[in-house]
Write a structure and sequence with these properties.
Elements lengths: L11 H7 L38 H13 L5 H12 L3 H14 L4 H13 L3 H14 L4 H15 L2 H14 L4 H16 L4 H5 L14
Helix pairs in contact: 1-9, 2-3, 3-4, 4-5, 5-6, 5-7, 6-7, 7-8, 8-9
Length: about 220
């Protein structure tokens, strides 16, 4: 997700720490910042961020052929969605994540990656609703919780809600990589806003909007 499309009122210090921590589920690792999920919201390329992957049309065609010949198989649809996501073609990624989820509605990773894709296309409410679906499947899915916090903070300016999500990550898996990200986010929030998240939420115009690219 591009930073230019993220609208939020959080101090630059807080943003600088959180940017880049939106996770996607496909790879299980921190990706380009900007969204939450297996995927992560990331800063724009050119700010030390990797450029979008080049879409391999041969792989796309092969997977589309497989998907067409195997209408009940979610796997090629997930693989197509991942290819498009990595190429930052999020609308196309959404199409294939949605198709895969219809076939396997209990796949929490696909659900979360779909939520991240919604966020990258400026649909924070749909992203949050999708994360709720993910958490109905697995209430302890830490990548979903971490991403939920990021979308709450950056997409909805809800720092109190973001804090709750990140604290839940710490409670569920205190030693995992998502917990490290959540702790950094909470520490940055505390440092930037000693009055607490509630104080920031009640005065969203108190800090200048940030434009650098933020998963």
């Amino acid at each position: 997700m591009k930073a230019e499309s993220i609208v939020f009122a959080i101090a630059g210090m807080f943003f600088g720490v959180i940017v880049g921590w939106v996770l996607g589920t496909q790879q299980g690792a921190i990706l380009r910042p900007s969204a939450p999920v297996q995927q992560a919201a990331a800063p724009a390329a050119g700010a030390g961020q990797p450029a979008a992957a080049v879409l391999d049309q041969n792989k796309v065609q092969a997977l589309e052929t497989t998907a067409k010949s195997e209408p009940s198989n979610a796997t090629p649809r997930v693989q197509l969605a991942n290819l498009y996501f990595d190429a930052e073609r999020y609308e196309d990624a959404i199409k294939w994540y949605e198709a895969a989820l219809k076939l396997d509605p209990k796949d929490v990773n696909v659900s979360t990656d779909l939520g991240v894709s919604y966020y990258y296309t400026n649909q924070p409410d749909r992203a949050l609703a999708q994360f709720e679906h993910s958490l109905s499947i697995d209430p302890k899915h830490t990548k979903t919780l971490l991403n939920q916090g990021i979308v709450r903070a950056f997409g909805k300016q809800d720092l109190t809600g973001a804090q709750a999500s990140w604290q839940q990550v710490l409670a569920v898996a205190p030693d995992g990589p998502e917990a490290q990200a959540a702790k950094r986010a909470l520490d940055a929030m505390k440092s930037a806003h000693p009055g607490g998240a509630a104080a920031v939420s009640s005065n969203p115009g108190g800090a200048p909007p940030a434009s650098p690219h933020n998963p």
